[in-house]
Each structure stands twice: as C-alpha cells, then as structure tokens.
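Supplementary Methods S3. Input chains for the assembly prediction are listed below.
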Amino acid sequence: MNNNPVLQISDLYVAYGSILALHGVCMEVHKGELVSICGVNGAGKSTVLKAIAGVLKPRSGSIRFKGKEVAGYKPEQLHKMGMALVPEGREIFPSLTVEENLRIGAYGRRLDKSFAADLEDLFNLFPILKERYHQAGGLLSGGEQQMLAIARGLISKPDLLMLDEPSLGLSPALVDQIFELIIELKSRNITILLVEQNAQRALAIADRAYLFANGRVEYSGQPQELMGNVDITSVYLGHNGGDV
Amino acid sequence: MNAEILFEFVINVLSMGSLYALISLGLVFVFGICQLVNYAYGEYITVSGYVLYFLGVFTNLPWPVVFLLGILAGVAIGFFSELVAFRPFRERSLDALLVTSFAVSIILQRLFQLGISPRSKAVPVPAFFNLNIQLFGVITPLRNLLIIGTTIVLLTVLVLIMKYTTLGIAMRGASENFVTARLMGVPANLMISAAFIISGLLAGVVAIFWSARTGSVEPMMGGTPLLIGFIAVVIGGMHSLPGSVLGGYVYAFISNVLSLTLPSSLLSFRDAFMFAIVIAFLVLKPEGLLRGNYQEERVG
Ligand SMILES: Nc1ncnc2c1ncn2[C@@H]1O[C@H](COP(=O)(O)OP(=O)(O)OP(=O)(O)O)[C@@H](O)[C@H]1O
Ligand SMILES: [Mg+2]
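Predicted structure tokens for the full assembly:
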C-alpha cells in the first residue's frame, strides 16, 4: 500500500433536497485494493458511490481521485479520468444490443486493435456476451444483464471500478459466479470498491471494509475483525451478518 | 374504387405523411434526450421559412443554395436556442425547461412581428416544385414526389447514423437512460446539442416543403406544424423515433380517409373527427403505437 490513495474522501456531506444522506463520510481506496462497503438498506452506500461518480453533487467535503480534487465534477469527466460505476440494478440499455451497450461503455475509446483485444478478453470472462452479442440487452436474463453491466464498466479499463450490489436479485449459483468474477478481477490488480448487502461474502474477499449506518462510517478496518465482532454484526448487519 | 383513385390516395398519404413524419421526428429527437416538449419547434420552421423568403426574394442564389441555407438556419436556431435559453435552466427542473420553451416560442414570434412584418409574405417557390407530373395516370405536383424522396433519403441517413456511429448509439443509450450514459462517459452537452441540431435540421427541411405548400411565411406559421407534430407523436409514441415516423404516416392516412369518405356536408368537421380519433388514441393507447424503452429520469 503506498501513500497516494486512488480515492480519498474526507468529511463528505451529501443531501437529497434538504435531507442529508451522508454525514461527514471519510474513506480511502488504494491501488489494487478491494474495499467493501456494507450496511443495511438506506445506510447511504449507493449515495456515496453516486457522489464519487459525480451523479450527486456533494454539499461539502472533498473527493480526491488520483490525487486531484474532483468534488463537483460531471460524471462524464470522471469516467474519462478513469472511474467506472456499475450501478445498482444494472441499468443496461434495454433496446440496445449487447454490442451497442459495450460500445457506450467504451465511449471515448478508439475502436482499434487494443479495443478488439480487450473485447476478446472480456468474452473469455463472459462467454455468454459473445453468444448474445447481437441481442437486445433487455432480452438477457438478470444474471446475464449483470455480466453485461460489469463488462460495460470494464471495457473502459478503469483505474477504479465501483460495483453497487452486483449480486442483488440473483440466484445462489449466479451469486457464486459473481463473487468468483470479483476475485478474478482482484487478481488482475483492478482497484475495486464493492457495495454489498451480502456482507459475509463481501467481507470474505475484501482487503478492507467500511460499515455504513445512517449515512455515517460506523466502522472501518479489517474485514476479519468486523466479521468476528458479534456486537457490530448483530447491530448493523442483522443477526447473522447478512444473508448468504 | 378504381386504380387511379387508389394511386392518387397513396401518393397523397405518402407525401403528406412524409412531411408529418419529419415534423414529429424533429419533436421526438429532443423529447427523447431531454424529456422536453419543445414548444419553440414550430418557430424553428418559421425561422427557416423567413430565410427562404429573404434569400428567394432578395438574392439570385440558385435554389439548392437557398435550400441549404434555409436548412442551416434551422440547424443554427436549434443549436443556439438550446445553448442560450435551455442550457442555463437544464439543471433546474423539467417545468422550468417547458416554460422556457414557451418563452422562446413567444419571443421569436414577437421578433418576427416587430422585425419583419406581422403580415404574411409570399415565398418564392421554384417552378419545378409545381410542375405537374403524370404517374400511372395520376397527375401530381413534383413537390409531392420530392418530399417523399427527401424523406426516404433523410430517414436512411438518420437510421445509419443512429445505428452505426458512436454518436448515434450514444444518443439512443442516452434517450433510454441519460444518467447511466453519462456514467459511461457520454457527454450530456454533446447529446443535447446533437438532438437540437437534428431537430433544427428537420425543421429546416420541413420549412421548404411547408412554405411551398402554403406559398407564404408569417410570424405565427409555426403553430400548425407544431400541432401536427403533437398529434403524430400522440398516435405513434413519444418515446420512439420509428413510432413518431409511423405516427406521421398514420395521421396522414386517417386524414385522407376522412377527406375521401366524409359526406361533403361533414367535410368542414374533418378536424373535429381527427381530434376525436386522437382522443381515442390517448384513451386506448396512451403510450402510442410503438412504446419504446425509456427511464423516467431527470437530465441533470
Ligand atoms: N433520490 C432520492 N431522494 C431522496 N432520498 C433518497 C434518494 N435516494 C436515496 N435517498 C435516501 O438516502 C438514504 C441513503 O440511500 P442509499 O440509496 O444510499 O442507501 P443504500 O445504502 O444504497 O441502500 P440499499 O441497500 O437499499 O441500496 C436513504 O435514507 C434513502 O431513503
Ligand atoms: Mg443502494
């Protein structure tokens, strides 16, 4: 771990209208790390990702990405700088084909040899996308849509990949597949910020973790500590530390 | 019904439908990207119409150049009205945008009234537009065939752009889910400018054939095409580009059927019948013939 985090957030306040959703959040993500954010519904997990990605403008506080202050930047600027957010609920473009969805994911990239090579590489990770290349995204199953959503995030070769509840609504077998995939991405040294309600699974693969509650960071540190701490898991993650 | 009447009917539906399809397509391009019903769209047509008038009356430029400049005027008013009037309010609310579009519409109308003339001006029309062509025993002015051909060419080009270019694919993505498209690096400003430019271009083409049909331009002339665009869009679907084109042709079809079938005593109520049909569409098929995919999301 070096001293220059890819992402550094300090004292971040974000509001929806007049209602504060984040109250002074501080966190950081270093290069090559897999950092998990856990917390119950409404804790502010998606809000922090949206603020980082520029969808929500912070009320105050600082967001530094690769050493640069980026609070208030537009989503498209941040994407260009190397961020990719795979949003909660997949949000693929339903009437666009898999190919077109990926083309938008690669917006700003030249469609050259290195793009073709990356595409081949993605097809190795997600063979189903090659099979369905010319099908409308809306016709894919939930699991396939999640694969597409992740692939669409990866095709831009982000320096920070943010995943918002990638396992949400998927069958247990598919959840396994998603977590295997995240481990594979981690082994490729991709920096990942993972939001999950499936806390045990997320904590098991994370390098570090943040526990959100009511728009605040309630705990941060080693995932093992968090999993071992009965008080914290029972209060903030439900009695058994989340569903498996 | 004999073959000639049928053929005349087909040409009428296709020529009128082509014009209506271009009108509604121009509305839906902007609506798809910004969810804005742009009331100033009719005035884009008027601006182009006045440019055609001035160039036609006061210069000796060849017709293709006049038409090109007329279309460019539509592009320019589309682009600059967005830049100057809509962009500053975009982050506010959809209602603010809607009110802005009313304002732009009214300001442009007043400018035409004060700066040019409140009365209508005769627009020169190239002679070949009114040349009567005999086709399968039916006599029709050449402009009816020109609008059909122009529409085929324009739609083909637009389909190619929307299907195969990065800009077009991004615009389709942005019209389904604007925020997510931005998260993928698609610039909001570029998408919106492109939508207004295409809208203005269509208004410019419409102006050529509209003013050729009416023979004149006047400050309030944008109202009728705007209404036609609304009706076509209600029929075809607000969220679908192909739907808006289909709506234009269906509108023309219904309108021509009414003209043919209504007894002459009821012919003056043709518009009333037309509106009754539109209301029926709103009740029975509120999302239009083609639904399209879109997300209710604000442009931020
Ligand atoms: N668009 C919105 N308008 C108003 N309030 C919102 C909006 N989105 C979220 N909130 C509120 O902000 C708080 C945090 O929401 P957020 O979506 O960040 O939670 P989350 O941790 O992602 O929850 P979940 O696990 O359900 O996805 C909640 O109280 C929520 O009600
Ligand atoms: Mg969430």
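DSSP finds twelve helices and four strands in chain B. Residues 22-221 of chain B form one domain.
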